[in-house]
Amino acid sequence: MLDWLFNRGERNEPPDRSPIVRGDRPGSPIALRVAMIVHDPSIPERGGLPLSRVMGWNDAEMLAQQYITDLRACSGGIADYRIVLRRVFDEFPVKIDGFRYNSATYLAAWERRQPFHQPDEADYERLLAEIGLTEAIEQGEIDEIWLFGFPYAGYYESRMVGIDAFWCNAPPLFLPTARRYIVMGFNVERDVGCMLENFGHRVESIMAHVYRHHPPERNLWARFTRLDECGNVHFAPSSARDYDWGNPRRVWSRADAWYAFPDLSAPPRLMHCTEWGAGDMRLHHLWWLDHLPRVAGETDGVLNNWWYYVLQPWAVS
Asked: Regarding beta strands 294-299 and 302-305, do their DSSP bridges make them parallel or antiparallel, or are they unpaired?
C-alpha cells in the first residue's frame, strides 16, 4: 500500500529541473489509452469545496500531465500515454470491510489526529464495478486505469487485474477479465516523484516476473538492479539505506553500460549522486528508468526493449 506516501505534511512541489535522461536512444511509441478516475469528495463543512482544494493539495490533472511527460522522456518516447476518459467521483471509496468515510469522519481523522480506519485497502472489486470499464478494457479501448485520490484512499501503488494476473507490487486481483491490465494508484497530496516511484515498483515486479525462470548467471534483471550497476527504485548506486538517493560517497558503477545494451562490456567508473539528482526523488527515478534497455532484438528469449513488457502486461508470458 501507499502508507509511507500518505504521511501528513506539507505539499511537495515538483522540482523545476530538467529530467536526467539521455536523448540518444529514441524508440517506437507504444500508444496507451488511459481512464483517469479521480476521487475528490466535496466537504460541506468547508463550503462544499472538493477535498483537494480544502487541503491545498495538488491538482490531479497537473500531476497526470507531468507524469505523462516524464515517462515519455525517460522511455525515449516509447511510453505514449493518452488520457481518453476522465471521471470524477464525489465520494469516498468503500474499504474492503465495507467502511466508507464521510466528510466528518475523514476531517476528524486528518485534523484532530484521530486514527484512520483499518483495514485501509479499498474494495477494488466494488470500485472497478462502479467505474464499469471492463468491456472497454477487453476490447482494447482502455489500456490502464489511473486512480487519483487522497491520503488513506486505500489504493495500491499498482495492481494487476485479470484471470491470469500476477504480483505487481500488490496481490493480483483475479477477476474474469481475459486481458490483463494495471490499475495505478496516486495520491494528490504528493508530487510526480511519488508517481514515478509507483511506476518504478511496477517495473520491478514485471521484470522480476519476466526473468523468473532464468538462472542467476543469465538473469539480466537481477544484474541491472545490483548497486554496482543501476541499483533499484529505493537504492541508487551510492545508497546505504532505503531512499538514500543523495548519499555523496563516490562509488564504482557499471550503469553506463546499460546505455549500450546488450553490450555490457563497458568498464565501471566512479559515480557521484549528482548524476541522479543528488537526493531528488523524481530525478533519481527518471535517471533509473532511462537506463532500462529499449533497443531491438532479444537476449536469452527476452526482448531487448524492456518497456514492451512494462507497458503491456497483457503481452507478458
From this structure: antiparallel
CB atoms within 10 A of CB 242: 10
**Percent of the chain whose predicted confidence (pLDDT) is above 90:** 89
Q: Would you say 50 and 58 are in contact if contact means Cβ atoms under 8 Å apart?
A: no
10-residue block means of pLDDT along the chain (317 residues)? 37 48 83 98 96 98 98 96 97 97 95 90 97 94 98 98 97 94 98 98 98 97 98 98 97 97 96 97 98 96 97 95
Residue with cell 531487448: 304
Neighbours of 292 (CB within 10 A): 20
Q: Computed over its alpha carbons, how large is the radius of gyration of the chain? A: 20
Residue ranges covered by each domain of the chain: 3-191, 216-315
Could you give the C-alpha distances from 17 to 49, 193, 200, 280, in angstroms and in order? Answer: 32, 12, 20, 10
pLDDT digits (tens, 9 = 90+) for 3-23: 333 333 333 343 445 567 876
221 vs 229: CA distance, rounded Å: 11
Cell 543469465, residue?
218
